[in-house]
Amino acid sequence: MNSYVKIRGMSCRHCVMAVRKALSALDGVKEGEVNLEKGEASISHDKPIDLEEVRKTIEESGYEVG
Questions:
Q1: Distance between CA 10 and CA 47 in Å, rounded?
Q2: pLDDT tens digits for 18-54?
Q3: What's the pLDDT score for residue 7?
Q4: How many CB atoms lie within 10 A of CB 64?
Q5: Which residues is 34 bridged to in the sheet?
Q6: How far is Cα 8 from Cα 16, in angstroms, rounded to an integer?
Q7: Facing residues of 42 across strands?
Q8: pTM for the whole thing?
Q9: Which class for 4: exposed (0-12), middle (13-18), buried (19 or more C-beta within 10 A)?
Q10: Which residues of 15-46 are buried (b: 16+ CB within 10 A; e: fewer)?
């Protein structure tokens, strides 16, 4: 399964790596691919994930969802 999340506030590769690392720590997430140009993350997961927890994790990393 894949879920997509729009992310605001990323400006460099460091931002991408920070979000990718945060997403990969979430339970059920197999991979989080982050696209700086599109401002979004594609999250591959093998079971349903809590999108509220995804939002919280991204915001705790210093970025906005939406």
A1: 27
A2: 999 999 999 999 999 999 999 999 999 999 999 999 9
A3: 98
A4: 13
A5: 41
A6: 11
A7: 4, 33
A8: 0.90
A9: exposed
A10: bbebbeebbeebeebeebebeeeebbbebebe
**Helix (H), strand (E) at residue 1:** none
Topology (CATH) of 2-65: Alpha-Beta Plaits (3.30.70)
Bridge partners of 6, per DSSP, are: 40
Q: Which residue has the tokens 């700086």?
A: 36
Q: Are 7 and 39 in contact (CB under 8 A)?
A: yes
Residue 49: which of 65, 33, 25 has the closest Cα? 25
The DSSP bridge partners found for residue 4 are 42
pLDDT tens, 53-63?
A: 999 999 999 99
Place of tokens 């349903």: 48
